[in-house]
């Protein structure tokens, strides 16, 4: 009742509703436009940029204050983004935390420190304005706002405690600097908000289009399902009809086709919701989840079903969404079966294996297939949204969704593969309460 009243009250106040949607409900994007290559180039810009400007401000265009040890440390921070451990998986929590820390220290903290130590001269006034624009361009506007405030306050506190003795900013220049900072900050905020709204609008339009297409596809599928029911009823009325076995097989094929197509539609809708995954606190049993998914999967044939083997070593409980993780396993099973099909496999027993167990203090779910595998050149790209290999093995379709769901549960999704040998997708998850 209180929730309904609050919703009505909020609906009458558009400004507060907009603020709630922007601050609380909009998905947080710690890294804008993430990719391993972009992280590498950002790291290189810090690594080489600090060395370059150390020379410019000390030798070519000397400034009152320049600090080589600080520049060296800043360069090393930039180098961290160039390492494969950090940049190979932009969606991981490690990468997001390192990225956030590096940019916070490099931009608001270091730049404010240098601005104060140089008495707010024109060079560092312009640099500070550029810093604000850059910061809002690489991370979520909420994180950029919080980082600018906290980083500026930390640098100011450090300057009061350890900073050099320099003349203060002239009184008549303080208002000028305040106006410049306000202008840079307001423009950065407006541009960042506009970009965030544009990304969400594009995603919403995509989901709307997919929803319309799904509705249009489900209508003829429902008709096909009804036809299958009608054929089965006809077989029951005429059990002695010599064509009854063929008619029953036709009805079964129609029902299987409808089930498979509906499954594909659900999969694509789930994959399209990549940036709209809500937080979940559901306790999920790994063994229960795997058993349910394997039993409910819409196999195309009994032979395909019989090739799947489940090895249950030990159960563990993790915190996430059972529905989302069921979709993850659906994607992995689908890709594995496609890979077996591409290898002209006859689906021998055990060609697709799903293992559930624990290693040290983490739970593990592995999906292993003896299919075509993945070429080494494609491995760095398979977790990109909607990436698929030209060989049609199916690997990579929806893997970005899988990775996002696993990361939202605090886990990791890794792959090992050799072309023409097979692939192993391993999910590692923190154990709830562990």
From TrEMBL:
Gene Ontology molecular function: any one: kinase activity
SMART domains: HATPase_c
Known catalytic reactions: ATP + protein L-histidine = ADP + protein N-phospho-L-histidine
Domain (Histidine kinase) ranges: 212-433
Signal peptide span: none
Transmembrane segments annotated in the record for this chain: 39-56, 122-138, 143-163, 175-193
UniProt superkingdom: Bacteria
EC number: 2.7.13.3
PANTHER family in alphabetical order: HYBRID SIGNAL TRANSDUCTION HISTIDINE KINASE C, TWO-COMPONENT HISTIDINE KINASE
EC class: transferase
Keywords assigned: Kinase, Membrane, Phosphoprotein, Transferase, Transmembrane, Transmembrane helix
Name of the protein in question: histidine kinase
InterPro entries the record matches: HATPase_C_sf, HATPase_dom, His_kinase_dom, HisK_dim/P_dom, Sig_transdc_His_kin-like_C
């Amino acid at each position: 009742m209180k929730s309904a009243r609050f919703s009505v009250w909020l609906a009458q106040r558009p400004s507060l509703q907009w603020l709630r949607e922007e601050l609380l409900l909009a998905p947080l994007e710690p890294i804008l436009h993430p990719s391993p290559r972009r992280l590498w180039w950002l790291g290189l810009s810090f690594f080489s940029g600090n060395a370059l400007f150390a020379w410019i401000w000390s030798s070519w265009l000397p400034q009152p204050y320049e600090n080589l040890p600080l520049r060296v440390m800043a360069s090393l921070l930039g180098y961290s983004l160039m390492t494969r451990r950090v940049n190979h998986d932009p969606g991981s929590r490690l990468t997001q935390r390192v990225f956030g820390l590096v940019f916070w220290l490099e931009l608001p903290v270091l730049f404010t420190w240098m601005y104060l130590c140089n008495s707010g001269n024109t060079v560092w006034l312009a640099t500070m304005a550029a810093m604000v624009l850059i910061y809002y361009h690489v991370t979520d506007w909420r994180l950029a706002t919080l980082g600018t405030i906290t980083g500026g306050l930390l640098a100011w506190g450090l300057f009061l405690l350890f900073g050099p003795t320099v003349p203060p900013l002239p009184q008549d220049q303080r208002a000028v600097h305040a106006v410049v900072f306000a202008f840079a900050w307001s423009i950065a905020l407006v541009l960042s908000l506009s970009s965030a709204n544009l990304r969400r609008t594009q995603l919403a339009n995509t989901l709307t289009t997919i929803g319309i297409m799904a509705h249009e596809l489900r209508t003829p599928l429902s008709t096909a399902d009804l036809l299958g029911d009608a054929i089965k009823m006809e077989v029951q009325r005429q059990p002695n009809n010599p064509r009854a076995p063929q008619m029953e097989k036709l009805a079964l094929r129609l029902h299987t086709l409808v089930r498979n197509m509906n499954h594909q539609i659900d999969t694509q809708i789930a994959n399209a919701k990549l940036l709209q995954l809500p937080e979940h606190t559901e306790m999920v049993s790994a063994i229960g989840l795997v058993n349910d998914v394997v039993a409910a999967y819409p196999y195309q044939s009994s032979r395909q079903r019989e090739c799947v083997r489940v090895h249950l070593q030990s159960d563990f409980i993790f915190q996430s969404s059972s529905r989302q993780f069921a979709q993850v396993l659906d994607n992995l099973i689908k890709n594995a079966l496609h890979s077996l099909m591409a290898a002209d496999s006859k689906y021998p027993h055990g060609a697709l294996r799903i293992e559930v167990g624990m290693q040290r203090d983490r739970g593990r779910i592995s999906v292993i297939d003896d299919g075509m595998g993945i070429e080494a050149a494609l491995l760095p790209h398979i977790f990109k949204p909607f990436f698929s290999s030209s060989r049609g093995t199916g690997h990579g379709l929806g893997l970005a969704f899988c990775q996002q769901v696993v990361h939202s549960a605090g886990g990791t999704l890794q792959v090992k593969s050799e072309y023409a040998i097979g692939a192993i997708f391993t999910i590692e998850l923190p154990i709830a309460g562990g």
